[in-house]
Design a protein that fits this description.
- With 172 residues, the chain is mainly alpha-helical.
- Helix 1 runs antiparallel to helix 2, helix 2 crosses helix 3 and helix 2 packs across helix 6.
- The longest helix is centred in the C-terminal third of the chain and has 30 residues.
């Protein structure tokens, strides 16, 4: 915001934590592509409320705040997903069972992939890989939400108003 240090990290953490919590809960996580941009736009809203009257939030600032919010959301999402791994495994197994009823193109042995006895439980390497993947995806969605949030909630600079349109010449 105008090239000086700002307090946009706290709003990004708040918006990202809210979006990550909503996208990590098993029932409402299907709206994950909505929660992340909404959380990023909320972070931009919070950042616009904390800036002084002189600062403007440009779309680039909104993208930066949104990307930070997306990374924070990925961390919260990954932490919330750890205790819900069994719930997710059962859900994906049911989905594949329903798909198998309607399609014969399922590969052999697909049932074994989602068998609870074959699940290895928590893996630090799997957690870190998932965190990196979610961070990249959520940062991209957060940047988009931040740009939208900047256009909706960002303070406009007083000198950047569009001049009124010139009147049309009279018709002969």
């Amino acid at each position: 915001m105008n090239g000086r240090p700002d307090g946009s990290l706290k709003p990004a953490l708040i918006g990202g934590a809210a979006a990550g919590a909503l996208s990590g809960l098993p029932v409402i996580q299907c709206l994950c592509c909505l929660w992340i941009p909404a959380g990023a736009a909320f972070a931009v809203f919070l950042a616009s409320r904390t800036t002084d009257g002189q600062a403007t939030i440009r779309p680039a600032d909104g993208a930066r705040i949104g990307a930070y919010a997306g990374i924070a959301a990925a961390v919260v999402h990954s932490l919330i997903n750890v205790p819900f791994q069994a719930v997710h495994l059962a859900f994906y197994r049911k989905v594949l069972e329903h798909l198998a009823e309607y399609g014969q193109a399922m590969p052999d042995g697909w049932q074994d992939f989602f068998n609870p006895q074959n699940a290895r439980g928590f893996s630090a390497a799997g957690f870190l890989v998932g965190l990196l993947i979610f961070s990249a995806i959520f940062a991209a969605f957060g940047a988009l939400g931040g740009v939208v949030g900047a256009s909706l909630f960002g303070k406009k600079a007083p000198g950047l108003r569009r001049p009124p349109a010139a009147p049309l010449p009279p018709q002969p």
